[in-house]
Design brief:
616 residues, Gyrase A, domain 2, 23 strands, homodimer, 8-stranded mixed β-sheet
């Protein structure tokens, strides 16, 4: 051992002890004939004092930043204590030292506010990982994993490893594939998730399974997506949705307690997918603040049930105000408002900037309507030409705008407008300080649609995955209706559009951190599901024959969930970027610039694998 | 929840409680008008009693083996108790029941002594996994993982995930590669181990790292090898070999205690690689029994130092006996004996069978010489024609054969003969009952050669891997000698042949369960090592430039080890087969016959990846 103690453990009680430390030179400070060196390791910083004689020796073996140094000496009480760090009351009076390794000057400063650009930090990731911020992130990640394992063990789950070299069954995202040398012309695929394996383990009777496991998706990388990512993957037998929800809000609360010291004792709010879409415009709402969406105009055929609670007010509004007076409202499919608390004082400039913001291509709206509900009871709006004060007041009253609030209104096509106002809501929440990263709010979103309409193929695709079970009451709707969509324009009228799934997402501060479902466990329903997704019998058998067959040998009712560990850690760490919570991430082109991977391979390797490159 | 209790938890103290159980039908026994059903889940078996009225209902809903059943009833004390199982004092008097899922008749019986053949068991792995034996194996594996994590956490290690999509650097085994769609013509490789990443983490200052991680090797599969396997991968900074040995024999002892309840308190024996080769004929000796190898004749140039301890006896033998009398001994490079205790009564038939055994192609010897050291003091041998009783006695005395022992002698080329007699030693150990699977013996083998001679390429290859450090005293031997081997026939005389590594293997019952080394942490030595392995500067930079560069920024001294989890579990479980300790293993062709993977993939997938198949 090169040391007797770490750089993080010495304190006043060690005074007089002879110790040997090893670590990295953080700083060197000369004061006349003596020299101070801060020595750093994973555990902390300790000050080394080189007296006059030692300083002379130092001059013969000069140190530099990031040199690896071993030093032996006596623990001494400091006259000038630094109470900000645990070791700050003592220093080591160095009696001998040895440079274990030198260091070139790092390409960027190794501190939290580094001067390194993104590319440089990625190329020298091993130096970036020395920064305290990244070290804290990886330690947090380890703590989250540990807490997860500890809770799941207490609950009777066992960790079972599933294979990485599996079969390609493209459905949804693209698979990464691996050519097999021993089986020429054949390929393995890397798993997008261990979904079918965990279901087989339930059929095998393992009852409660979990795994913290890498998964792979060959997707075009949007910002903050990684081709390989880590899931906390769980499955349980003999459960209903309620059991899963309770088990896993328990998990997240346990992690809060263990990792962040937060007692999250309140019940986790539950809302339906429809409720989320109506009230927040998306399926992973940030419920740390209210600022709900209110429809001034509704397209005829969707979400009718969820609108019941505001129906009376909606009708009252429409009897007192003729929104059609304003041509933009008249021509729009949807008109949606949010009431921004205390923002009636927004200046013309601020409102113009918001208008520009919604007109950006990423949002893509034509414009923004505002109504200021002034403190003095008057109203000022961008549509004063079309509406009298009474009409503005009626709109403000319907949208629960108080004095001092600012109403923001978007109009246009249903889906686009809802998405845009949802983004605007998040922006305003951010600006008003409602999205404090140290404030955590969990939410269950339930009753997702089972199917999603694919415009490209004019067919149904699985919203979650093909193994998700429909609500029991709606199984008949699937069995009794042909999946074919006769009229693409009216796909929402197809019986499948309203089938809800036994599926649930857990949302934390506006991010989906986990999702799962109660699975299908009967062969007939699974077959019907495959056929609903446009798979013929032969194809279903080729891709998932093993699972269909397994359902014949006593498959228990089962369900589960998977959490995205990278994202979970990022949110716990108060960051937007999952990359900062992965030791060796890839960039947006899926490249590891440190390794320079992917790269070309030898002709011999290609030929052994029985493949060749096509002309590029 | 479909149940109030599991099938493993009810006992006499629950008598009178109303419970609901869910599980699989293990057996159905009818006695007149009543029916007994044993219901099984992961946790145990519970007997259900269907009285006359319930049995009538059962007839309307007949059960079969492996049906999934939910039953509600009252816990009752059994008249006919089964004290072999924890739940055997009670039964459930069923009041209502529901068949949750039916089961077809399984293709084999689901019990430890199943009637299923290997192919059938692999295809229906999910049913095989229901057998108690496999369930125990997977639980043992989970317990080994848990104990590992617990010990390493206590010792300050943190679990850090390293990437799976890395760069292909073929050196040793073949890589599995993954074509990159986003980087046409480029490939990722799957890691053979996280070796370079864990070294980078040491350079980053993480001090103690571990991971239980999948690794991949595209090798031709010998029996009981898997293309994907799991390692317990560990690395430490500021350590010397002794620190690593102590830390990790601590780990294995901890696992023994936690998983097997065994107090392995004795010190782990340590022998050098040369000692192992001389005394046991291989580098992972089973030291549960002695039966050492003794050379009657030695090739001139190898292992001279390790022979010192028997040199005097060796010389004495050769002055008293002229082994050259027997032409086979005269012509052989090596003659090696083992003394098999208490086997002098072996019959002619048994000896003939042993002779056939060593002549099998897998062993490949020409014949077997025996000398019986009879209880009456006489000797009987297959070479009586050439040697007198006194000569046989001298040989017996040199080889420490006692009265009643059987000497077995092989002669031939050094490497082959040593290997053969080592196999013969294991066979005899097995037959004499010295290899009890419930008896565990750990061993460290140290001081491995740094290099191995590759006859194919007439160059040096790394015996462990290119990052292993040489013994400090031998660094000069590498620096001062050219790697080129002028005379292939005399490669053993090259200075590199005698360079020893700071490398160590942990052996358990004759199996290598782990291996590691103190690593090189200086750029110049690493560069010299690459060049010794025949890599030119450009190649070294292309493959491992990131590591060489990392060594320039303050790399600490470091070392580590990796254990093969699959093998470790198999030995702990008293089995020869790692496959029985992997949930979903592949067969000897690297195929998963359950999934039918690998398989062909769509033309669209191939074209997106910019590859095509060559003509097969």
């Amino acid at each position: 051992m090169y040391r007797t103690h770490t750089c993080g453990e010495l304190s006043i009680k060690h005074t007089g002890t002879k110790v040997t430390l090893a670590g990295w030179v953080q700083t060197i400070r000369k004061f006349g004939s003596i020299t101070f060196v801060d020595l750093r390791d994973r555990y902390g910083l300790t000050q080394l004092l080189f007296n006059e004689a030692m300083s002379v020796k130092l001059e013969a073996n000069p140190l530099g930043r990031e040199y690896v140094l071993q030093a032996t000496g006596t623990v001494t009480e400091r006259t000038n204590k630094n109470l900000n760090i645990p070791t700050g009351e003592v220093e080591i009076t160095v009696e001998s030292f040895l440079v274990l390794n030198k260091s070139a000057v790092p390409p960027f400063t190794i501190q939290n506010d580094t001067d390194g650009g993104d590319d440089l930090l990625m190329k020298y990731r091993y130096l970036d990982l020395r920064r305290p911020e990244l070290k804290e992130n990886l330690l947090l990640r380890y703590n989250v994993s540990r807490a997860t394992r500890s809770y799941l063990h207490q609950q009777g789950f066992i960790d079972i490893e599933t294979p990485f070299l599996i079969k390609s069954t493209p459905e949804g995202a693209r698979d990464f594939v691996v050519p097999s040398r021993m089986n020429p012309g054949h390929f393995y695929a890397l798993p997008q998730s261990p979904q079918t394996f965990k279901q087989l383990l339930m059929i095998s009777g393992y009852d409660r399974y979990y795994q913290i496991v890498k998964c792979f998706r060959d997707e075009d990388l949007r910002a903050d997506r990684q081709p390989e990512f880590t899931q906390i993957d769980c499955e349980m037998s003999f459960v209903e949705q309620e059991d899963v929800l309770q088990m896993f809000e328990g998990l997240i609360k346990y992690i809060f307690k263990e990792v962040k010291g937060i007692d999250y004792t309140e019940a986790v709010e539950r809302i339906s997918w429809e409720y989320a879409m109506w009230n927040f415009g998306n399926d992973k709402p940030d419920t740390r603040f209210d600022m709900r969406l209110l429809n001034l105009k509704v397209p005829g055929y969707v979400f009718s049930e969820s609108l019941n609670e505001v129906k009376d007010e909606f009708n009252k509004l429409h009897t007192s105000v003729s929104l059609e007076e304003f041509p933009v409202f008249a021509n729009a499919e949807t008109v949606i408002a949010i009431s921004v608390p205390g923002a009636s004082e927004y200046t013309r400039k601020q409102l113009d900037e918001l208008t520009e913001w919604v007109k950006r291509p990423q949002i893509g709206m034509q414009g923004l309507v505002y109504i200021k509900s002034n403190e003095d009871g008057s109203f000022k709006s961008s549509i004063d030409k079309f509406f009298k004060q009474e009409a503005l007041q009626a709109i403000a009253s319907y949208t629960n705008a108080n004095k001092g609030d600012l109403l923001l209104i978007l109009a246009g096509k249903e889906e686009k407008t809802r998405k845009a106002i949802s983004e605007l809501r998040l922006l305003m929440g951010e600006r008003l300080g409602f999205r404090n990263k140290n404030n955590f709010k969990l939410l269950w979103v339930l009753d997702f649609p089972l199917f999603e309409y694919s415009q490209d193929d004019n067919r149904w695709v699985a919203r979650h995955h093909p193994f998700t079970s429909p609500k029991p009451a709606q199984v008949e709707a699937i069995i009794n209706n042909d999946p074919v969509i006769e009229d693409p324009a009216a796909y929402l009228k197809h019986a499948y559009a309203n089938v809800k799934a036994n599926a649930y997402d857990m949302v934390l501060n506006g991010n989906e951190i986990g999702g799962g479902s109660i699975r299908i466990h009967q062969r007939e329903i699974q077959e019907k599901m495959f056929s609903a997704l446009g798979m013929n019998e032969e194809e279903a058998k080729e891709k998932f024959g093993f699972l269909l067959e397994a359902f014949e040998y006593g498959a228990p009712p089962h369900g589960g969930i998977a959490f995205g560990l990278d994202r979970l850690c990022a949110i716990f760490g108060g960051s937007e970027s999952i990359r900062d919570f992965i030791a060796f991430p890839k960039n947006n082109s899926g490249r590891d610039t440190m390794l320079d991977a992917p790269a070309s391979i030898d002709k011999k390797q290609l030929s052994e694998l029985n493949i060749r490159l096509t002309d590029l």
